[in-house]
Amino acid sequence: MNEQLRDVRLRTGSLVLRPWLPGDLTALLDAYRDPAIQAGSRAPVADREAAERWLRDREEGRESGLRHSFAVVDTALGDGPVGNVGLVRPASGSEAAEVGYWTVAPARGRGVAPQALEALTDWAFRTLAADGLATLHLLHQVDNEASCRVAEKAGYGFAEVLPAHPPWPLDGHRHERRAAGSGR
């Protein structure tokens, strides 16, 4: 794995997007106590062991080059993570990847999620386009209106309704954003 990709830090406004660190374990556990974060998670973090596994998975994803997760720090709120933003590719060279995010309650309504998603998106298209990345997908359940707003603010247009599929009990929305000049 390219050292620059593994250790990348992004800055936008008062936000710093950085790799998750072992010292973030308590912040991660606190975040996953939030029912809103639990509801949108494919991999809930219920205890210390699960949090340690979650952090290891993020590091392994960075090493593989297929998962880029960033702790979102809003320096206006302090120096600890207030959110997560990430990108997952099925394989190197894949044209499409999926993005996702979450924020803790004190960071909601401050524009943290769309700003972090925009920074991730710009970085992904700038950095991974040479490896074929052209489209990013954002998925959420239909009842998550806040995610629709975040997607729109970050330039992700609504693409389609997806039928419910475990672990999701409700239909979903797929939003997408294409790299400039991708031709579609």
What is the C-alpha radius of gyration, as a whole number of Å? 16 Å
Query: In percent, how much strand structure appears in the residues?
Result: 25-35%
Assign a percent range to the helix content. 25-40%
Low-confidence sequence ranges = none
Largest sheet: 8 strands, mixed
- What is the helix/strand order? HEEHHHEEEHEHEE
Strand neighbour order, sheet with most strands? 1-2-3-4-5-6-8-7
Number of E strands = 8
State the helix count. Answer: 6
Distance between the termini: 30 Å
Query: What structural class should be given to the helix and strand makeup?
Result: alpha+beta
Task: Name the overall outline.
Answer: globular
Average per-residue pLDDT, rounded, comes to 92
List keywords for this structure.
alpha+beta; 184 residues; globular; 8 strands
Structure described in brief:
With 184 residues, the chain is an alpha+beta fold. It is built from six helices and eight strands; from the N terminus they run H-E-E-H-H-H-E-E-E-H-E-H-E-E.
